[in-house]
Automatic annotation (TrEMBL):
<feature type="transmembrane region" description="Helical">
    <location>
        <begin position="194"/>
        <end position="214"/>
    </location>
</feature>
<dbReference type="GO" id="GO:0006865">
    <property type="term" value="P:amino acid transport"/>
</dbReference>
<protein>
    <submittedName>
        <fullName>GABA transporter 1</fullName>
    </submittedName>
</protein>
<feature type="transmembrane region" description="Helical">
    <location>
        <begin position="49"/>
        <end position="70"/>
    </location>
</feature>
<feature type="transmembrane region" description="Helical">
    <location>
        <begin position="125"/>
        <end position="145"/>
    </location>
</feature>
<keyword id="KW-0812">Transmembrane</keyword>
<feature type="transmembrane region" description="Helical">
    <location>
        <begin position="424"/>
        <end position="449"/>
    </location>
</feature>
<dbReference type="InterPro" id="IPR013057">
    <property type="entry name" value="AA_transpt_TM"/>
</dbReference>
<comment type="function">
    <text>Carrier protein involved in proton-driven auxin influx. Mediates the formation of auxin gradient from developing leaves (site of auxin biosynthesis) to tips by contributing to the loading of auxin in vascular tissues and facilitating acropetal (base to tip) auxin transport within inner tissues of the root apex, and basipetal (tip to base) auxin transport within outer tissues of the root apex. May be involved in lateral roots and nodules formation.</text>
</comment>
<feature type="transmembrane region" description="Helical">
    <location>
        <begin position="234"/>
        <end position="253"/>
    </location>
</feature>
<feature type="transmembrane region" description="Helical">
    <location>
        <begin position="392"/>
        <end position="412"/>
    </location>
</feature>
<feature type="transmembrane region" description="Helical">
    <location>
        <begin position="76"/>
        <end position="97"/>
    </location>
</feature>
<feature type="transmembrane region" description="Helical">
    <location>
        <begin position="274"/>
        <end position="294"/>
    </location>
</feature>
<dbReference type="Pfam" id="PF01490">
    <property type="entry name" value="Aa_trans"/>
</dbReference>
<keyword id="KW-0927">Auxin signaling pathway</keyword>
<feature type="transmembrane region" description="Helical">
    <location>
        <begin position="314"/>
        <end position="338"/>
    </location>
</feature>
<dbReference type="GO" id="GO:0005886">
    <property type="term" value="C:plasma membrane"/>
</dbReference>
Length: 461
Protein backbone atom coordinates (compact mmCIF):
# COMPACT_ATOMS: atom_id res chain seq x y z
CA UNK A 1 0.00 0.00 0.00
CA UNK A 2 1.46 3.35 -1.04
CA UNK A 3 0.94 6.77 0.47
CA UNK A 4 0.93 10.05 -1.45
CA UNK A 5 0.78 13.47 0.17
CA UNK A 6 -1.65 15.79 -1.65
CA UNK A 7 -1.57 18.72 0.74
CA UNK A 8 -0.37 19.61 4.19
CA UNK A 9 -3.63 18.57 5.75
CA UNK A 10 -4.84 15.58 3.70
CA UNK A 11 -3.28 12.17 3.22
CA UNK A 12 -4.62 9.75 0.58
CA UNK A 13 -3.91 6.04 0.37
CA UNK A 14 -4.17 3.81 -2.66
CA UNK A 15 -5.86 0.46 -2.07
CA UNK A 16 -6.40 -1.77 -5.11
CA UNK A 17 -8.75 -4.10 -3.23
CA UNK A 18 -11.13 -1.30 -2.32
CA UNK A 19 -10.50 0.35 -5.65
CA UNK A 20 -10.32 4.03 -4.91
CA UNK A 21 -8.28 6.77 -3.31
CA UNK A 22 -9.31 7.26 0.28
CA UNK A 23 -9.13 10.47 2.24
CA UNK A 24 -8.28 8.92 5.59
CA UNK A 25 -9.83 11.78 7.51
CA UNK A 26 -13.30 11.59 5.93
CA UNK A 27 -13.83 8.39 3.93
CA UNK A 28 -16.55 6.08 5.26
CA UNK A 29 -16.09 2.34 5.58
CA UNK A 30 -17.31 0.37 2.58
CA UNK A 31 -20.61 -1.42 3.08
CA UNK A 32 -21.03 -5.04 1.99
CA UNK A 33 -22.61 -4.09 -1.35
CA UNK A 34 -19.71 -1.88 -2.41
CA UNK A 35 -17.07 -4.20 -0.96
CA UNK A 36 -18.34 -7.48 -2.44
CA UNK A 37 -20.41 -6.69 -5.57
CA UNK A 38 -18.75 -3.55 -6.91
CA UNK A 39 -15.17 -4.71 -6.45
CA UNK A 40 -12.87 -2.44 -8.49
CA UNK A 41 -10.45 -4.66 -10.40
CA UNK A 42 -11.40 -4.24 -14.06
CA UNK A 43 -9.64 -2.62 -17.00
CA UNK A 44 -11.09 -0.11 -19.46
CA UNK A 45 -11.65 -3.02 -21.85
CA UNK A 46 -13.73 -4.86 -19.25
CA UNK A 47 -15.65 -1.63 -18.78
CA UNK A 48 -16.36 -1.64 -22.53
CA UNK A 49 -17.74 -5.18 -22.31
CA UNK A 50 -20.05 -4.24 -19.42
CA UNK A 51 -21.25 -1.08 -21.16
CA UNK A 52 -21.98 -2.89 -24.41
CA UNK A 53 -24.00 -5.61 -22.69
CA UNK A 54 -25.96 -3.03 -20.66
CA UNK A 55 -26.94 -1.04 -23.78
CA UNK A 56 -26.85 -3.23 -26.89
CA UNK A 57 -29.72 -5.70 -26.48
CA UNK A 58 -32.57 -7.32 -28.47
CA UNK A 59 -34.40 -4.00 -28.19
CA UNK A 60 -32.49 -3.06 -31.35
CA UNK A 61 -34.90 -5.35 -33.21
CA UNK A 62 -37.61 -2.72 -32.56
CA UNK A 63 -35.66 0.06 -34.30
CA UNK A 64 -37.15 -0.54 -37.78
CA UNK A 65 -40.58 -0.19 -36.14
CA UNK A 66 -39.51 3.17 -34.67
CA UNK A 67 -38.71 4.27 -38.23
CA UNK A 68 -42.32 3.48 -39.25
CA UNK A 69 -43.37 6.12 -36.70
CA UNK A 70 -40.72 8.68 -37.67
CA UNK A 71 -40.02 8.11 -41.37
CA UNK A 72 -36.59 8.00 -43.03
CA UNK A 73 -35.44 11.48 -42.09
CA UNK A 74 -36.82 11.46 -38.55
CA UNK A 75 -35.59 7.92 -37.88
CA UNK A 76 -32.01 8.50 -38.97
CA UNK A 77 -31.96 11.94 -37.32
CA UNK A 78 -33.16 10.71 -33.91
CA UNK A 79 -31.01 7.59 -34.03
CA UNK A 80 -27.97 9.80 -34.58
CA UNK A 81 -28.96 12.47 -32.04
CA UNK A 82 -29.64 9.85 -29.36
CA UNK A 83 -26.22 8.29 -29.97
CA UNK A 84 -24.43 11.64 -29.70
CA UNK A 85 -26.45 12.75 -26.68
CA UNK A 86 -26.01 9.55 -24.68
CA UNK A 87 -22.29 9.34 -25.46
CA UNK A 88 -21.94 12.93 -24.26
CA UNK A 89 -24.17 12.27 -21.24
CA UNK A 90 -22.31 9.15 -20.12
CA UNK A 91 -18.99 10.91 -20.55
CA UNK A 92 -20.24 13.76 -18.33
CA UNK A 93 -21.19 11.22 -15.67
CA UNK A 94 -17.71 9.73 -15.91
CA UNK A 95 -16.07 13.14 -15.52
CA UNK A 96 -18.14 13.87 -12.40
CA UNK A 97 -17.24 10.46 -10.96
CA UNK A 98 -13.53 11.01 -11.68
CA UNK A 99 -13.68 14.44 -10.07
CA UNK A 100 -15.09 13.08 -6.81
CA UNK A 101 -12.62 10.18 -6.85
CA UNK A 102 -9.75 12.67 -7.04
CA UNK A 103 -11.22 14.48 -4.04
CA UNK A 104 -11.04 11.24 -2.05
CA UNK A 105 -14.69 10.20 -2.27
CA UNK A 106 -15.18 7.66 -5.03
CA UNK A 107 -18.89 7.33 -5.77
CA UNK A 108 -19.66 3.71 -6.65
CA UNK A 109 -23.43 3.93 -7.21
CA UNK A 110 -26.00 6.22 -8.76
CA UNK A 111 -27.50 6.82 -5.35
CA UNK A 112 -24.04 7.79 -4.01
CA UNK A 113 -23.89 10.50 -6.67
CA UNK A 114 -27.38 11.70 -5.82
CA UNK A 115 -26.57 11.75 -2.10
CA UNK A 116 -23.32 13.72 -2.48
CA UNK A 117 -24.49 16.14 -5.18
CA UNK A 118 -28.22 16.66 -4.60
CA UNK A 119 -28.76 15.41 -1.05
CA UNK A 120 -29.83 12.14 0.64
CA UNK A 121 -33.52 12.71 -0.04
CA UNK A 122 -32.97 12.54 -3.80
CA UNK A 123 -31.12 9.25 -3.43
CA UNK A 124 -33.63 7.66 -1.06
CA UNK A 125 -36.90 8.75 -2.64
CA UNK A 126 -36.12 9.26 -6.32
CA UNK A 127 -32.87 7.95 -7.83
CA UNK A 128 -32.64 4.74 -5.79
CA UNK A 129 -36.24 3.55 -6.36
CA UNK A 130 -36.13 4.63 -10.03
CA UNK A 131 -32.95 2.69 -10.73
CA UNK A 132 -34.23 -0.35 -8.84
CA UNK A 133 -37.47 -0.33 -10.88
CA UNK A 134 -35.55 -0.17 -14.17
CA UNK A 135 -33.10 -2.90 -13.18
CA UNK A 136 -35.73 -5.23 -11.76
CA UNK A 137 -37.96 -4.54 -14.76
CA UNK A 138 -35.11 -5.62 -17.02
CA UNK A 139 -34.67 -8.77 -14.94
CA UNK A 140 -38.36 -9.51 -15.54
CA UNK A 141 -37.97 -8.83 -19.25
CA UNK A 142 -34.89 -11.06 -19.62
CA UNK A 143 -36.59 -14.45 -19.01
CA UNK A 144 -39.59 -13.21 -21.02
CA UNK A 145 -37.55 -12.36 -24.14
CA UNK A 146 -35.40 -15.45 -23.68
CA UNK A 147 -38.50 -17.61 -23.21
CA UNK A 148 -40.05 -16.31 -26.42
CA UNK A 149 -36.84 -17.08 -28.34
CA UNK A 150 -36.70 -20.55 -26.81
CA UNK A 151 -40.35 -21.20 -27.66
CA UNK A 152 -39.75 -20.07 -31.25
CA UNK A 153 -36.83 -22.50 -31.58
CA UNK A 154 -38.99 -25.28 -30.13
CA UNK A 155 -41.82 -24.59 -32.58
CA UNK A 156 -39.44 -24.51 -35.53
CA UNK A 157 -39.00 -28.24 -35.24
CA UNK A 158 -42.10 -29.20 -33.25
CA UNK A 159 -44.88 -26.80 -34.35
CA UNK A 160 -47.64 -28.75 -32.60
CA UNK A 161 -45.68 -29.34 -29.40
CA UNK A 162 -47.59 -29.05 -26.11
CA UNK A 163 -45.16 -26.78 -24.24
CA UNK A 164 -46.40 -23.29 -23.35
CA UNK A 165 -44.58 -19.95 -23.20
CA UNK A 166 -44.54 -19.86 -19.38
CA UNK A 167 -42.59 -23.14 -19.33
CA UNK A 168 -39.84 -21.65 -21.50
CA UNK A 169 -39.83 -18.53 -19.32
CA UNK A 170 -39.26 -20.75 -16.27
CA UNK A 171 -36.34 -22.48 -18.02
CA UNK A 172 -34.74 -19.08 -18.69
CA UNK A 173 -35.50 -18.08 -15.11
CA UNK A 174 -33.53 -21.08 -13.83
CA UNK A 175 -30.54 -20.06 -15.96
CA UNK A 176 -30.86 -16.51 -14.62
CA UNK A 177 -30.96 -17.85 -11.06
CA UNK A 178 -27.64 -19.64 -11.62
CA UNK A 179 -26.04 -16.50 -13.13
CA UNK A 180 -27.35 -14.46 -10.20
CA UNK A 181 -25.03 -16.33 -7.86
CA UNK A 182 -21.87 -14.95 -9.52
CA UNK A 183 -20.37 -12.95 -6.66
CA UNK A 184 -19.51 -9.60 -8.28
CA UNK A 185 -19.99 -7.38 -11.32
CA UNK A 186 -16.34 -7.95 -12.24
CA UNK A 187 -16.94 -11.72 -12.43
CA UNK A 188 -19.16 -11.11 -15.49
CA UNK A 189 -16.35 -9.69 -17.62
CA UNK A 190 -15.79 -12.83 -19.73
CA UNK A 191 -19.52 -13.45 -20.09
CA UNK A 192 -19.96 -9.87 -21.27
CA UNK A 193 -17.21 -10.25 -23.87
CA UNK A 194 -19.16 -13.20 -25.28
CA UNK A 195 -22.32 -11.07 -25.05
CA UNK A 196 -20.66 -8.32 -27.12
CA UNK A 197 -19.78 -10.85 -29.83
CA UNK A 198 -23.29 -12.34 -29.76
CA UNK A 199 -24.95 -8.92 -30.18
CA UNK A 200 -22.85 -8.22 -33.27
CA UNK A 201 -23.67 -11.69 -34.63
CA UNK A 202 -27.45 -11.47 -34.33
CA UNK A 203 -27.46 -7.89 -35.61
CA UNK A 204 -25.49 -9.12 -38.62
CA UNK A 205 -27.96 -11.98 -39.13
CA UNK A 206 -30.93 -9.60 -39.05
CA UNK A 207 -29.25 -7.13 -41.41
CA UNK A 208 -28.29 -9.81 -43.93
CA UNK A 209 -31.73 -11.41 -43.63
CA UNK A 210 -33.48 -8.11 -44.33
CA UNK A 211 -31.33 -7.46 -47.39
CA UNK A 212 -31.85 -10.99 -48.74
CA UNK A 213 -35.63 -10.79 -48.31
CA UNK A 214 -35.70 -7.26 -49.73
CA UNK A 215 -34.08 -8.49 -52.95
CA UNK A 216 -36.03 -11.77 -53.18
CA UNK A 217 -39.20 -12.61 -55.10
CA UNK A 218 -40.99 -12.70 -51.75
CA UNK A 219 -40.13 -9.06 -51.06
CA UNK A 220 -43.24 -7.23 -49.83
CA UNK A 221 -44.38 -4.02 -51.52
CA UNK A 222 -42.63 -1.16 -49.74
CA UNK A 223 -44.32 2.01 -48.60
CA UNK A 224 -42.48 4.52 -46.42
CA UNK A 225 -45.38 6.87 -45.67
CA UNK A 226 -46.56 7.39 -42.07
CA UNK A 227 -49.75 5.52 -41.20
CA UNK A 228 -52.83 6.57 -39.26
CA UNK A 229 -54.60 9.84 -38.53
CA UNK A 230 -52.80 13.05 -37.70
CA UNK A 231 -53.29 12.33 -33.99
CA UNK A 232 -51.93 8.80 -34.39
CA UNK A 233 -48.93 10.14 -36.29
CA UNK A 234 -48.24 12.76 -33.62
CA UNK A 235 -48.31 10.22 -30.78
CA UNK A 236 -46.35 7.85 -33.00
CA UNK A 237 -43.52 10.36 -33.31
CA UNK A 238 -43.10 10.52 -29.54
CA UNK A 239 -43.45 6.76 -29.23
CA UNK A 240 -40.71 6.37 -31.84
CA UNK A 241 -38.44 8.81 -30.03
CA UNK A 242 -39.05 6.96 -26.72
CA UNK A 243 -38.20 3.61 -28.34
CA UNK A 244 -34.91 4.99 -29.66
CA UNK A 245 -34.07 6.71 -26.36
CA UNK A 246 -34.74 3.48 -24.46
CA UNK A 247 -32.54 1.55 -26.90
CA UNK A 248 -29.57 3.69 -25.81
CA UNK A 249 -30.42 3.59 -22.11
CA UNK A 250 -28.25 2.07 -19.42
CA UNK A 251 -29.11 3.49 -16.00
CA UNK A 252 -26.13 1.79 -14.33
CA UNK A 253 -23.16 3.86 -15.57
CA UNK A 254 -21.77 4.63 -12.06
CA UNK A 255 -21.95 0.94 -11.10
CA UNK A 256 -20.07 0.01 -14.27
CA UNK A 257 -17.39 2.63 -13.64
CA UNK A 258 -17.11 1.27 -10.09
CA UNK A 259 -15.72 -1.98 -11.53
CA UNK A 260 -12.66 -0.15 -12.93
CA UNK A 261 -9.41 -0.44 -10.98
CA UNK A 262 -7.73 2.83 -9.96
CA UNK A 263 -6.62 5.16 -11.33
CA UNK A 264 -9.96 5.61 -13.10
CA UNK A 265 -9.16 8.71 -15.15
CA UNK A 266 -9.86 8.26 -18.86
CA UNK A 267 -10.81 4.59 -18.62
CA UNK A 268 -14.55 5.11 -18.93
CA UNK A 269 -14.08 7.16 -22.10
CA UNK A 270 -12.12 4.29 -23.66
CA UNK A 271 -14.84 1.86 -22.59
CA UNK A 272 -17.50 4.11 -24.12
CA UNK A 273 -15.57 4.13 -27.40
CA UNK A 274 -15.61 0.31 -27.44
CA UNK A 275 -19.33 0.29 -26.70
CA UNK A 276 -20.32 2.94 -29.25
CA UNK A 277 -18.28 1.32 -32.00
CA UNK A 278 -20.55 -1.71 -31.52
CA UNK A 279 -23.62 0.55 -31.38
CA UNK A 280 -22.67 2.29 -34.64
CA UNK A 281 -22.25 -1.11 -36.28
CA UNK A 282 -25.45 -2.72 -35.03
CA UNK A 283 -28.09 -0.02 -34.50
CA UNK A 284 -27.83 1.67 -37.87
CA UNK A 285 -27.47 -1.55 -39.85
CA UNK A 286 -30.53 -3.19 -38.25
CA UNK A 287 -32.72 -0.06 -38.35
CA UNK A 288 -31.92 0.96 -41.93
CA UNK A 289 -31.92 -2.52 -43.50
CA UNK A 290 -35.14 -3.55 -41.73
CA UNK A 291 -37.04 -0.40 -42.64
CA UNK A 292 -35.71 -0.53 -46.21
CA UNK A 293 -36.90 -4.12 -46.65
CA UNK A 294 -40.37 -3.83 -45.07
CA UNK A 295 -41.22 -0.11 -44.99
CA UNK A 296 -44.15 0.88 -42.81
CA UNK A 297 -45.09 -2.80 -42.44
CA UNK A 298 -42.10 -3.36 -40.13
CA UNK A 299 -43.35 -5.19 -37.07
CA UNK A 300 -42.73 -4.40 -33.41
CA UNK A 301 -39.80 -6.79 -33.74
CA UNK A 302 -38.28 -7.10 -37.20
CA UNK A 303 -37.93 -10.88 -36.98
CA UNK A 304 -41.74 -11.12 -37.19
CA UNK A 305 -41.46 -9.85 -40.78
CA UNK A 306 -39.24 -12.79 -41.69
CA UNK A 307 -42.29 -15.06 -41.46
CA UNK A 308 -45.20 -14.58 -43.88
CA UNK A 309 -48.09 -16.31 -42.15
CA UNK A 310 -46.84 -19.87 -41.86
CA UNK A 311 -44.19 -19.47 -44.57
CA UNK A 312 -40.58 -18.88 -43.53
CA UNK A 313 -38.89 -16.40 -45.86
CA UNK A 314 -35.45 -17.71 -44.88
CA UNK A 315 -34.11 -21.20 -44.08
CA UNK A 316 -34.96 -22.66 -40.67
CA UNK A 317 -31.31 -22.81 -39.68
CA UNK A 318 -31.21 -19.01 -39.98
CA UNK A 319 -34.01 -18.62 -37.42
CA UNK A 320 -32.44 -21.23 -35.16
CA UNK A 321 -29.05 -19.51 -35.22
CA UNK A 322 -30.39 -15.98 -34.75
CA UNK A 323 -32.66 -16.93 -31.86
CA UNK A 324 -29.87 -18.87 -30.14
CA UNK A 325 -27.68 -15.73 -30.31
CA UNK A 326 -30.52 -13.61 -28.89
CA UNK A 327 -31.30 -16.14 -26.16
CA UNK A 328 -27.70 -16.33 -24.94
CA UNK A 329 -27.11 -12.58 -25.12
CA UNK A 330 -30.27 -11.71 -23.22
CA UNK A 331 -29.19 -14.02 -20.39
CA UNK A 332 -25.95 -12.02 -20.09
CA UNK A 333 -27.93 -8.76 -20.21
CA UNK A 334 -30.14 -9.98 -17.37
CA UNK A 335 -27.09 -10.90 -15.29
CA UNK A 336 -25.74 -7.35 -15.71
CA UNK A 337 -28.95 -5.71 -14.54
CA UNK A 338 -29.08 -8.07 -11.57
CA UNK A 339 -25.96 -6.41 -10.15
CA UNK A 340 -27.55 -3.24 -8.69
CA UNK A 341 -30.27 -5.34 -7.04
CA UNK A 342 -27.64 -7.81 -5.80
CA UNK A 343 -25.62 -4.90 -4.44
CA UNK A 344 -28.67 -3.56 -2.60
CA UNK A 345 -29.31 -6.96 -1.01
CA UNK A 346 -25.65 -7.23 0.05
CA UNK A 347 -25.76 -3.72 1.53
CA UNK A 348 -28.91 -4.53 3.48
CA UNK A 349 -28.21 -8.08 4.63
CA UNK A 350 -24.43 -8.57 4.31
CA UNK A 351 -21.75 -7.97 6.92
CA UNK A 352 -18.67 -6.22 5.50
CA UNK A 353 -16.61 -7.24 8.54
CA UNK A 354 -17.02 -10.91 7.67
CA UNK A 355 -15.49 -12.64 4.63
CA UNK A 356 -17.31 -12.48 1.31
CA UNK A 357 -17.67 -16.26 1.25
CA UNK A 358 -18.32 -16.76 4.95
CA UNK A 359 -21.49 -18.62 5.92
CA UNK A 360 -22.80 -15.38 7.44
CA UNK A 361 -22.74 -13.70 4.01
CA UNK A 362 -23.26 -16.63 1.62
CA UNK A 363 -26.61 -17.74 3.12
CA UNK A 364 -28.46 -14.40 2.80
CA UNK A 365 -26.77 -13.79 -0.57
CA UNK A 366 -28.06 -17.02 -2.09
CA UNK A 367 -31.46 -16.69 -0.42
CA UNK A 368 -32.31 -13.14 -1.47
CA UNK A 369 -30.81 -13.36 -4.96
CA UNK A 370 -32.77 -16.54 -5.58
CA UNK A 371 -36.01 -15.03 -4.25
CA UNK A 372 -35.65 -11.93 -6.45
CA UNK A 373 -35.07 -14.01 -9.60
CA UNK A 374 -37.97 -16.32 -8.72
CA UNK A 375 -40.27 -13.32 -8.27
CA UNK A 376 -39.11 -11.81 -11.59
CA UNK A 377 -39.67 -15.12 -13.39
CA UNK A 378 -43.21 -15.46 -12.03
CA UNK A 379 -44.02 -11.91 -13.12
CA UNK A 380 -42.56 -12.59 -16.60
CA UNK A 381 -44.76 -15.67 -16.96
CA UNK A 382 -47.83 -13.76 -15.75
CA UNK A 383 -47.23 -10.67 -17.89
CA UNK A 384 -46.05 -11.64 -21.39
CA UNK A 385 -47.24 -8.19 -22.52
CA UNK A 386 -44.55 -6.65 -20.28
CA UNK A 387 -42.79 -4.81 -23.20
CA UNK A 388 -45.64 -2.29 -23.22
CA UNK A 389 -45.00 -1.65 -19.52
CA UNK A 390 -41.25 -1.38 -20.15
CA UNK A 391 -41.92 1.38 -22.69
CA UNK A 392 -43.53 3.30 -19.84
CA UNK A 393 -40.53 2.57 -17.60
CA UNK A 394 -38.31 3.84 -20.41
CA UNK A 395 -40.12 7.16 -20.55
CA UNK A 396 -40.28 7.78 -16.80
CA UNK A 397 -37.08 5.98 -15.78
CA UNK A 398 -34.40 5.65 -18.45
CA UNK A 399 -34.69 9.18 -19.81
CA UNK A 400 -34.32 10.90 -16.39
CA UNK A 401 -31.34 8.72 -15.39
CA UNK A 402 -29.53 8.87 -18.71
CA UNK A 403 -30.48 12.22 -20.24
CA UNK A 404 -31.41 14.57 -17.39
CA UNK A 405 -29.49 13.71 -14.20
CA UNK A 406 -26.02 13.62 -15.86
CA UNK A 407 -26.56 17.23 -17.00
CA UNK A 408 -27.75 18.26 -13.55
CA UNK A 409 -24.89 16.46 -11.79
CA UNK A 410 -22.30 18.13 -14.02
CA UNK A 411 -23.76 21.64 -13.70
CA UNK A 412 -24.14 21.36 -9.92
CA UNK A 413 -20.65 19.88 -9.45
CA UNK A 414 -18.63 22.15 -11.74
CA UNK A 415 -20.95 25.17 -11.83
CA UNK A 416 -20.07 26.24 -15.39
CA UNK A 417 -20.75 29.89 -16.12
CA UNK A 418 -24.11 30.74 -17.63
CA UNK A 419 -22.17 32.41 -20.40
CA UNK A 420 -20.55 29.15 -21.55
CA UNK A 421 -21.83 26.87 -24.31
CA UNK A 422 -21.55 23.79 -22.07
CA UNK A 423 -23.97 25.21 -19.51
CA UNK A 424 -26.62 25.91 -22.13
CA UNK A 425 -26.10 22.63 -23.98
CA UNK A 426 -26.57 20.74 -20.73
CA UNK A 427 -29.60 22.81 -19.78
CA UNK A 428 -31.18 22.41 -23.22
CA UNK A 429 -30.70 18.63 -23.21
CA UNK A 430 -32.19 18.35 -19.70
CA UNK A 431 -35.19 20.54 -20.58
CA UNK A 432 -35.91 18.79 -23.87
CA UNK A 433 -35.61 15.42 -22.15
CA UNK A 434 -38.05 16.51 -19.45
CA UNK A 435 -40.60 17.38 -22.14
CA UNK A 436 -39.94 13.98 -23.72
CA UNK A 437 -40.57 12.26 -20.37
CA UNK A 438 -44.02 13.83 -20.11
CA UNK A 439 -45.12 13.34 -23.72
CA UNK A 440 -43.44 9.94 -24.09
CA UNK A 441 -45.09 8.80 -20.88
CA UNK A 442 -48.51 9.87 -22.13
CA UNK A 443 -47.90 8.13 -25.47
CA UNK A 444 -46.82 4.93 -23.67
CA UNK A 445 -49.91 4.97 -21.44
CA UNK A 446 -52.09 5.50 -24.52
CA UNK A 447 -50.48 2.48 -26.19
CA UNK A 448 -51.10 0.33 -23.10
CA UNK A 449 -54.77 1.35 -23.14
CA UNK A 450 -55.06 0.53 -26.86
CA UNK A 451 -53.44 -2.88 -26.38
CA UNK A 452 -55.25 -3.71 -23.13
CA UNK A 453 -57.99 -5.68 -24.90
CA UNK A 454 -55.40 -8.27 -25.98
CA UNK A 455 -53.89 -8.68 -22.49
CA UNK A 456 -54.38 -11.87 -20.49
CA UNK A 457 -52.41 -13.35 -17.62
CA UNK A 458 -50.14 -16.28 -18.50
CA UNK A 459 -50.84 -15.71 -22.19
CA UNK A 460 -49.12 -18.08 -24.62
CA UNK A 461 -48.44 -15.34 -27.19
Amino acid sequence: MGTVTRSSSEVYTSDSEKGFAINTSTAPELDAGAKFVLVSRGSWLHCGYHLTTSIVAPVILTLPFSFTLLGWVGGVLWLTLAALTTFYSYNLLSIVLEHHAQLGRRQLRFRDMATDILGPGWAKYYVGPLQFAICFGTVIGGPLVGGKSLKFIYQLYNPDGPMKLYQFIIICGVVTLILAQLPSFHSLRHINLISLILSVMYATCVTVGSIVIGHSKDAPPRNYSLRGSNVDQLFGVFNGISIIATAYASGIIPEIQATVAPPVKGKMLKGLCVCYSVIATTYFSVAISGYWAFGNQSGSTILANFVDGTKFLLPKWFFFMTNIFILLQVMALTAVYLQPTNELFETTFGDPKMGQFSIRNVVPRVLFRSLSVAAATVLAAMLPFFPDIMALFGAFGCIPLDFILPMVFYNVTFKPSKYTIKFWVNTLIAAASLILVVIGGIASIRQIVLDAKTYSLFSDM
